[in-house]
Backbone:
């Protein structure tokens, strides 16, 4: 043991992907997604990859994608949550009742009061977190399998929502609340480009800070050209995405109606871009937060450690029971956020809101590479999984595939995705 | 006589009516290696898990440096500077070496985030000392060989300035060269004043590395002997027959 510290990493030959430090699995998913989109675009004669359709696709994905990020944590710790659609429904029902009846009737807040949407959302998020955390207690402390607890939860919360609203559709919802739904609340062109500029700056700084840190410890860093390629890809993606969303303009007839409502005449050649919807901003914010949590927080580290070896994590002094409560509570919070987006997008609370979402959410996480055996999964994978599912579904609808056939295809794709993943992991020898 | 570093007195624990550990007392001094011997199921690992906080004794008391302490979970044990190398190694296979080494005690940046680079740098330092051939810092530990995994588990136990080290079958998965490294490490830690409980099946290891040996059978303590006073055969008969040396059967 008289050896000096051997801090220097060995010189290794690296292939292109290793040099770029890219996740090959992620690239595979992006490639599959691209093939899918281009395929639909060809079949529909160029109607799939229009700014309008991409805009719609994005806002349709948000609700499931938000929940899928939380499902990654649940599945990574070897649990499952079958109740997310029902939690969404109950949160949505609570918020619909709060803004249309409880706040105006009991607290005497006038309809349209600026306080209503915020009190409503706060209430919804608290309720979602609590009814999410409770099954976490049953799973973590009382050791009831999550499958059973959340299967029960599915029935309970789906019907609590029904009972609370007597099965009625509740609406119209508050106009400020509706801004979280997608098309009714967007940043506009200028705001979107400012956001894009900030995002690019933040990404570049992130790359710089990572490199500086690695150099400080004397670790291997990518060659500068590789950093440049990565920076260009990230910036290009951000700018391209914002470019597409801002290219979608408010239809002329709708604009004319807006001006009529204000008793003004629309100037000749006037156009207005939608830009980034607030719901998509919310998803971006959640994705970044959840990714940081997964890879850079103690909470996330313990989640993955528990998934890899629960006993070892317990022996390392980590309270895995309380961890389970926190994970399910977080899942509940995300369901409530999804409930805001989903009900605002529909402009009403409907009795069947979120039906079958549990399956979409689990499928998104699993297609995104989350292993049901635990310990493996990424947030961006789940988002991509949600996008792939939504694209499949709306692409098939656009092509004119019958609804039952659509569901059959989605089911088959789910199984196929897992098979491909298993084969890939076997080949690369990854766990 | 000096106060023992660890004094476990009259420890009992039972699982569903089975007395896994039945009124056992053992002690350990600073700079001493005490071997724990016995068949599978004799209660060695259970006894040691009570000290490391994985189990709680039904009765009995633990004194550390003369003070009575309550160890109700692994965090308490770590707070008393008790570190354990489990027979199963207790590694999260999907995480890399440094994440495992610092599990539950991560280094964090000033923003409260996990500082992976700093942890990797520290891991490289200690591995350079323990196992200079170790280079797989980026891979999950599932990709490591048995010996490499063992060295991660050992690094975790010695990195945090343990005063009391529990080693449960540390040589079971190792080749001759690595076994020699562990033996050298034990000598070195001993000279630093660390007290070590060494659980082993191998009588030669115990005779070579330990100062004293406590033998258990069926959850009871057969006896504790100074290894210089006994032969291999004496220890064997304690393990197999449960008899103290010298107390020849009639």
Residues:
């Amino acid at each position: 043991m008289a050896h000096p510290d051997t801090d220097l990493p060995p010189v290794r030959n690296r292939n292109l992907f290793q040099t770029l430090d890219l996740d090959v699995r992620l690239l595979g998913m992006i490639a599959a997604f691209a093939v899918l989109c281009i395929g639909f675009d060809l079949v529909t004669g160029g109607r799939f990859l229009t700014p309008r359709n991409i805009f719609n696709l994005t806002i349709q994905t948000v609700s499931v994608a938000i929940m899928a990020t939380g499902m990654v944590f649940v599945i990574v710790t070897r649990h499952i949550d079958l109740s997310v659609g029902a939690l969404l429904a109950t949160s949505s029902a609570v918020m619909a009742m709060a803004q249309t009846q409880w706040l105006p009737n009991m607290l005497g807040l006038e309809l349209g009061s600026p306080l209503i949407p915020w009190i409503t959302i706060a209430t919804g998020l608290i309720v979602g977190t609590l009814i999410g955390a409770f099954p976490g207690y049953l799973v973590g402390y009382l050791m009831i399998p999550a499958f059973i607890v959340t299967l029960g939860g599915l029935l309970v919360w789906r019907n609590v929502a029904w009972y609370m609203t007597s099965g009625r559709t509740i609406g119209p919802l508050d106009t400020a609340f509706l801004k979280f739904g997608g098309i009714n609340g967007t940043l506009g062109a200028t705001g979107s480009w400012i956001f894009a500029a900030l995002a690019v700056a933040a990404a570049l700084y992130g790359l710089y800070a990572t490199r500086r840190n690695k150099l400080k410890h004397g670790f291997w860093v990518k060659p500068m050209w590789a950093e440049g390629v990565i920076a260009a890809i990230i910036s290009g993606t951000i700018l391209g995405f914002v470019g597409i969303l801002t290219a979608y303009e408010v239809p002329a007839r709708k604009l004319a109606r807006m001006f009529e409502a204000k008793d003004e005449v629309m100037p000749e050649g006037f156009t207005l871009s939608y830009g980034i919807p607030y719901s998509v901003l919310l998803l971006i914010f959640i994705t970044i937060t959840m990714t940081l949590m997964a890879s850079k927080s103690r909470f996330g580290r313990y989640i993955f450690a528990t998934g890899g070896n629960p006993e070892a994590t317990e022996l390392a002094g980590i309270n895995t029971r309380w961890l389970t409560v926190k994970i399910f509570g977080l899942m509940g919070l995300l369901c409530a956020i999804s409930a805001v987006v989903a009900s605002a997008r529909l402009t009403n609370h409907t009795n069947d809101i979120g039906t079958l979402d549990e399956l979409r959410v689990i499928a998104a996480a699993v297609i995104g590479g989350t292993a049901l055996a635990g310990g493996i999964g990424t947030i961006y994978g789940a988002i991509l999984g949600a996008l792939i599912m939504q694209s499949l579904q709306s692409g098939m609808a656009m092509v004119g595939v019958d609804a039952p056939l659509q569901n059959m295809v989605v089911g088959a794709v789910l199984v196929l995705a897992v098979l491909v993943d298993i084969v890939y992991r076997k080949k690369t020898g990854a766990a | 006589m000096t106060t023992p570093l660890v004094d476990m007195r009259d420890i009992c624990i039972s699982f569903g009516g089975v007395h896994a550990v039945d009124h056992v007392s053992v002690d350990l001094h600073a700079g001493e290696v005490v071997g724990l011997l016995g068949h599978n199921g004799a209660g060695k690992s259970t006894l040691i898990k009570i000290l490391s906080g994985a189990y709680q004794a039904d009765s009995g008391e633990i004194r550390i440096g003369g003070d009575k302490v309550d160890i109700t979970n692994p965090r308490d044990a770590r707070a008393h500077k008790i570190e354990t190398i489990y027979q199963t190694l207790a590694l999260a296979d999907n995480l890399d070496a440094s994440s495992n080494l610092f599990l539950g005690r991560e280094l964090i940046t000033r923003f409260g985030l996990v500082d992976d680079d700093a942890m990797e740098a520290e891991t490289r330092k200690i591995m350079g000392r323990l196992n200079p051939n170790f280079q797989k810092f980026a891979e999950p530990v599932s990709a490591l060989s048995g010996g490499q995994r063992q060295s991660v588990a050992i690094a975790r136990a010695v990195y945090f300035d343990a005063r009391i080290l529990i080693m449960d079958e540390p040589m079971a998965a190792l080749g001759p060269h690595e076994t020699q490294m562990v033996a050298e490490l034990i000598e070195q830690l001993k000279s630093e004043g660390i007290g070590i409980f060494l659980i082993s099946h191998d009588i030669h290891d115990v005779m070579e590395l330990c100062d004293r040996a406590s033998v258990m059978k069926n959850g009871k303590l057969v006896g504790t002997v100074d290894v210089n006073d006994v032969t291999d055969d004496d220890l064997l008969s304690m393990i197999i027959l449960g008899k103290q040396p010298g107390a020849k059967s009639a």
Residues 94-160 of chain B form one domain. The CA atoms of residues 7 and 63 of chain B lie 5 Å apart. The beta strands of chain B are 6-15, 18-28, 33-37, 59-64, 67-69, 82-85, 164-168, 195-199, 212-217, 220-226. Chain B touches chain A through 46 residues (CB under 8 Å).
